[in-house]
Amino acid sequence: MDTITKQREVKNFIDGKFERNGHVSMDVMSPIDGSIISSLPLSDYSDVDKAVKASQKAFTSWSSKTLKERVQVFFNYRTLLEKNIDELTKLIQLENGKTYGEAKAEVEKSIELCEFAVSMPQIVVNEVQEVSKGVECRTESRPIGVVASITPFNFPNMVPNWTIPNALVLGNTMIMKPSEIVPLSSMRLAELLKEAGLPDGVFNLVNGGKEVVEAICDHPGIKAVSFVGSTKVAKIVYKRATSTLKRCVALGGAKNHLIVLPDANPEMTASNVVASMSGCAGQRCMAASVMVGVDKVQHIIDKMMLIEAKKLIPGENLGSVISAEAKKRIENYIAQAEKDGAKILLDGRKTTVPGKEGGYYVGATIIDHVTIDMSVAREEIFGPVISIIRAKNLDEAIEIENGSNYGNAAAVFTQSGGLAKQVMERASAGMIGVNIGVPVPREPFSFGGWNESKFGVGDITGRSSIEFWTQNKKTTSKWNPQAQINWMS
Ligand code: NAD
């Protein structure tokens, strides 16, 4: 990790140049050991305005290239992601704290996202039809203009790549506002995009916090905003961006329920549930947060406890959480559950890692006999914690899942196709798993939740995102003077 630990200061990337113009700065910390690794400029409206002007200028030539020309840059970018995978992985680890394997999987997913984007010429085929003799209608997908992407801390490489390849291949130019907690990965992506041959101004980075997000929502030169983060901020961004008549899709937080039926395969279920709640230290919007155990599932809980959760060693195969505040928040939730009468089967509080005492670690935590009124049953904890609620039957389990304000993912573990189908049909969530604890759809399928896990129409990746990043132009033409004249043409 040597070359990576010597980080440069974070800079904005505008019109193909890295710059930092006397901004007030904030420290960037590594959650692995609490050390300061960089400093970040707190940009403002004037930086967003400068990036918008560069993007507008670049839009004219970028949008006039053919789709097949634009994807060439992303073939190169995909190769560069692959070539630099070890460095990119270590950079994610440094700023986010996840394990090497988790961080590498993130870059691998970014590569898959690029592969979808470069297949766009095969997917986005314009339509043409002769609607009456000599008269033709055609529909073309056109880019929208300057778009913005605002990202969270938990996937510093993958979430930016949810939007960059698709939006740019489709002819837009972009301003990205990465999470101020993990800005280094995005800065490296900007370098790789330039190396891949992306023209100046097509992709811009403006670093900072709330002020930059507000400037993006308000700026009249930006046509569309995508946001990924907590529900609280997703609501603010959705309201503010749409109030200035932008199109917006805002993905929020989650509280995912896994319904475990007594006939489920015990080994597979125990390992899937534990992997889902603990992967990336539980800081995934697709993480299992509540296990609804239907009827007699004690043997599965025993396996989760005795075999699976015990394998998790903080600092080795269980990464850190993002900050001291996050650690405190997660530990407070566990304490509250205990006070409310739940049973802490496995307690991850008071975890330290020898040699990394300044790091923010929480051990895997399993809380049993949780009831639906408790905060650990209702609120997003965003740590390696699972709450077990016991249900008498499947109807009661589905009712518990349906009672959540969120609706990102839900899963069922069973060997019965009929019971699985009931959950597929009745769960109130956008992404459903059957015997899968992290049901992330893979390209060309789209990613996006329901209820308070997503605001706006359409999903953020896959085929559904094409509509978000484009607008249709409809042309009706007649070149034949002998063409029939009728009521339509
Ligand atoms: P966050 O909402 O705190 O921050 C997200 C972005 O919003 C950041 O760029 C941040 O600078 C900005 N921001 C923060 N407060 C703001 C405010 N008051 N006004 C304007 N902008 C503000 O989220 P986070 O803590 O970085 O990420 C974790 C959250 O993201 C979790 O809730 C997680 O479930 C969610 N998430 C959701 C998905 C999904 O697909 N639904 C994916 C990843 C993460």
Offer a concise description of the structure.
The chain has 17 helices and 20 strands.
How are the secondary structure elements laid out?
Layout (H helix, E strand, L loop, with lengths): L1 H4 L6 E3 L2 E3 L5 E5 L6 E6 L3 H20 L2 H17 L1 H12 L3 H19 L1 H4 L3 E6 L2 E9 L2 E5 L7 H12 L3 E5 L6 H12 L7 E3 L4 H9 L5 E5 L2 H13 L3 E5 L4 E5 L5 H13 L9 E7 L3 H11 L15 H16 L3 E4 L18 E4 L6 H4 L6 E7 L2 H9 L6 E5 L3 H10 L4 E4 L19 E2 L6 H8 E9 L11
Parallel strand pairs: 7-8, 7-10, 8-9, 10-11, 12-13, 12-17, 13-16, 15-16, 17-18
Antiparallel strand pairs: 1-2, 3-4, 5-6, 6-20, 11-19, 14-15
Would you give an account of this structure?
With 489 residues, the chain is α/β, with parallel strands linked by helices. 39% of the residues lie in helices and 21% in strands. It is built from 17 helices and 20 strands. The strands form 5 sheets. The protein has a 7-stranded mixed sheet, with helices on both faces. A 6-stranded mixed sheet has the order 9-8-7-10-11-19, sandwiched between helices. Strand 15, helix 14 (375-378) and strand 16 (385-391) form a beta-alpha-beta unit. Helix 2 crosses helix 9 and helix 5 runs parallel beside helix 7. The chain is globular, with a radius of gyration of 24 Å. The termini are far apart. The mean pLDDT is 95. The chain binds nicotinamide-adenine-dinucleotide. Nicotinamide-adenine-dinucleotide binds at residues 150-154, 159, 177, 179-180, 209-210, 213, 228-230, 233, 236, 251-254, 285, 380, 382, 408, 449, 453.
